[in-house]
Design goal:
Layout lengths: L4 E3 L2 E6 L4 H14 L3 E4 L6 H10 L4 E5 L2 E5 L4 H12 L2 E4 L21 H4 L1 H11 L6 H20 L3 E6 H13 L16 E5 L1 H8 L3 H9 L6 H11 L30 H19 L6 H11 L2 H11 L13 E5 L7 E4 L2 E4 L1 E2 L38 E4 L1 H16 L3 E2 L4 E5 L10 H6 L7 E5 L3 E2 L3 E5 L18 E2 L7 E6 L3 E5 L2 E13 L14 H9 L9 H11 L4 E6 L5 H9 L3 E6 L5 H8 E7 L1 H14 L9
Parallel strand pairs: 2-7, 3-6, 3-7, 5-12, 8-9, 18-23, 23-24
Antiparallel strand pairs: 1-2, 4-5, 4-8, 9-10, 10-11, 13-25, 14-17, 15-16, 18-22, 19-20, 20-22, 21-22, 22-25
Helix pairs in contact: 1-3, 6-7, 9-10, 10-11, 11-12, 12-13, 16-17, 17-18
Length: 645
């Protein structure tokens, strides 16, 4: 990579705060450029804080000035530049004026900093192109005018000048230097109050910087060779190890008090590969990143291996080292009890703070709160409105279960697509990163808001229909041959079609009635949703489910089900996930409808992912109860991991 750029005798390292990609860039360029002086985008009043933070290294610390908090974290480009200059005895100038307004760039659609490692100059150009579409604030113009003027003085007095600062400012600073134009608007200054020096707790570290102790510690151990993806893989692997002190730790979602009794966890290095791959897919699809954040890892760890594995991963990721000597006597800033991003606490004091640095979109920003893994939010079905006035009730699926199952259906059908090996090509990301993100294509087409990846070209067998036998070890099981009476059940899915033969349910609550339903055999499709609001075209219910429920007696068996389903997907391939190999009789039914059956062992799907998506909560609710429950789910996403504060 190189996001750095030369202008006359000035070398700029435009950066995003806190990202170790740019800390590594500073360390790389100074070896070749050997600057005579270093200029940093920071107020001159903060020099003592940089000195103190350097003495505290590698402990993450912060300075609180008024209602502003200035984090200092290993890997941040500003701190790396200051540390390096002090080690070499080179003069450091802090050239950013202290103003009243600081920019919050979140939501501006900037590229994720994890792309900078391979994007280099293309990454910087993408950021600059996006920046031109936003109105520049007067405070920014005033700051850039002052920084440009101070840089020009340094360039005239020194042979080689290194500047490290925010990427959004670099292009306009260069434009001012090229014409020696230093006029800018007049803005009010800000008083630099006596700073309060604090350590950053893991929860505050994640909230303010997107970093967490595990990756900070790995960077500090070997800054010159640090690789973020290697640190993520090492974390996922470390969580496999059973540790007595973490034996009771479990990661709970909003509706759970304990892990389901039937879930058995077993992890292996192969599962770690799945965890990391799934997490990278989440990073690519949620924040267009090339490296997963901690929330991405927790979600993938829960889905692929289990809640106890995810609990260990959470605890290890946030495990703190002993503070350095210079930071040992400082108080610790922690996350506040409120969901508000400005809410923090120091001991018993409650603080409302805003970041002091310009704040770009941070990797893996999420509404989830990362503070404590042992407790969970209360059930969203507790204390719902009474149903006396509204007698109409309907059976509805718990929304997160519905969402995860729809994603699962898409996953198992897409992974069944067969590809003939051929030359790779660039395509929009859907699922499965294969060789990773094609960074240059992604940055060139950033305005589309999509990730592009490298995929093999060639003939593709497009699979949109499938069968999942979750339970049975043989095609001739009594439940498949019509000798056991069962029914069909699935939520009214709006994005995929599914009809599932259900097994015995577990009643979770009596008022309102909530059941935990398990699928035993499922017919799935991407060609029709289970239910349609309008009736312009038939739904999966109309074409398949209605015909299945009409089967009775001896006709209600596997081959009759398949005859109905294969008629729906006539002429198309169908993937059949099961522990057994489908018999010739299954293929004879398929041939009648020109269907090609592709058998895939059920073991190809991660065990925990199967366990998690097989079951769903089914509740009988009134409209008012449904609305309240949905709102609680939305609020709960802001507190996926409940905490003490």
């Amino acid at each position: 990579m190189t996001t750095s750029e030369r202008f006359e005798n000035l070398l700029g390292v435009p950066s995003f705060h806190y990202s170790p990609v740019f800390g590594g860039e500073v360390r790389a360029v100074v070896r070749d450029f050997t600057p005579s002086v270093v200029a940093i985008e920071a107020p001159p009043e903060s020099r003592d804080e940089f000195e103190w933070a350097t003495d505290c290294w590698p402990t993450p610390v912060c300075s609180v000035v008024g209602n502003c908090v200035f984090p200092f974290v290993p890997g941040d480009s500003l701190l790396e530049a200051f540390r390096w200059a002090r080690t070499k005895g080179i003069a450091v100038h802090l050239i950013d004026p202290l103003t009243r307004r600081r920019r919050d760039l979140r939501g501006c659609g900037l590229p994720d900093p994890s792309l900078a490692g391979r994007g280099g100059a293309a990454f910087r150009e993408a950021v600059e192109a996006i920046e031109t579409g936003f109105r520049t604030q007067g405070a920014d113009l005033a700051r850039e005018a002052v920084m440009a003027q101070r840089l020009r003085l340094l360039m005239e007095r020194h042979e080689r000048v290194l500047w490290v600062g925010g990427m959004a400012h670099w292009r306009r600073i260069v434009a001012r230097l090229s014409v020696n134009g230093f006029a800018g608007p007049v803005t009010g200054g800000q008083e630099w109050k006596s700073p309060q020096r604090l350590r950053l707790s893991p929860s505050a570290l994640v909230r303010l910087t997107g970093r967490y102790p595990w990756v900070v510690r790995r960077y500090a151990a070997d800054p010159d060779h640090y690789d973020e993806m290697e640190a993520v893989r090492a974390l996922a692997l470390a969580a496999l190890e059973e540790r007595p002190e973490l034996a009771d730790l479990i990661l709970l979602t909003t509706e759970e008090k304990s892990a389901p009794a039937w879930v058995e966890e077993s992890g292996s290095p192969a599962d770690v590969i799945r965890v990391v791959t799934y997490a990278r897919n989440l990073a690519a699809s949620t924040h267009l990143g090339d490296c997963p954040s901690l929330p991405d890892l927790l979600m993938s760890g829960t889905a692929v291996v289990g809640k106890r594995y995810a609990g260990r991963l959470f605890a290890i990721a946030l495990e703190e080292d002993s503070p350095s000597l210079a930071a040992a006597g400082c108080g610790e800033l922690e996350l506040g009890a409120q969901a508000d991003e400005r809410s923090f606490r120091l001991g018993r004091s409650r603080l409302r703070l805003v970041p002091g640095w310009d704040e770009p979109a941070r990797q893996g920003r999420s509404g989830w709160r990362l503070s404590h893994a042992r407790t969970a939010l209360g059930s969203p079905f507790e204390k719902l409105p009474r149903s006396n006035k509204d007698k109409r009730e309907a059976w509805v699926c718990y929304p997160p279960d519905e969402e995860s199952y729809e994603a699962f259906v898409g996953y198992v059908l897409r992974r069944a697509s067969l590809i003939d090996p051929a030359e790779a090509k660039t395509v929009p990301f859907a699922v499965g990163l294969r060789d990773g993100i094609d960074v240059r294509t992604t940055l060139r087409r950033w305005q589309e808001g999509r990730i592009f990846v490298r995929e093999e070209s060639g003939a593709r067998l497009h699979v949109t229909n499938g069968i999942i036998d979750w339970e049975h070890g043989s095609e001739f099981d009594d439940r498949l041959q019509g000798r056991v009476d069962n029914g069909w059940i699935d939520p009214d899915l709006l994005h995929v079609g599914s009809a599932s033969r259900d097994g015995p349910y577990v009643q979770v609550r009596a008022n309102p009635e909530v059941r935990l339903v398990r699928r035993e055999f499922s017919l799935i499709t991407l060609d029709r949703p289970t239910w349609l609001r309008g009736k312009d075209s038939p739904s999966f219910y109309d074409e398949v489910i209605a015909k299945l429920v009409e089967l009775h007696g001896r006709d209600d068996n596997l081959y009759a089900w398949l005859d109905v389903f294969f008629a729906f997907c006539a002429g198309k391939p169908v993937v059949y996930y099961s522990r057994y190999v489908p018999s010739p009789q299954v293929h004879r039914v398929a041939w009648r409808h020109r269907v090609r059956v592709i058998h895939v062992p059920l073991q190809r799907i991660p065990k925990q992912l199967l366990a998690r998506t097989r079951s769903f909560l089914f509740a009988s609710l009134t409209r008012r109860q449904w609305d309240v429950m949905v709102q609680r789910v939305a609020d709960g996403r802001a507190g996926w991991l409940d905490g003490e504060g």
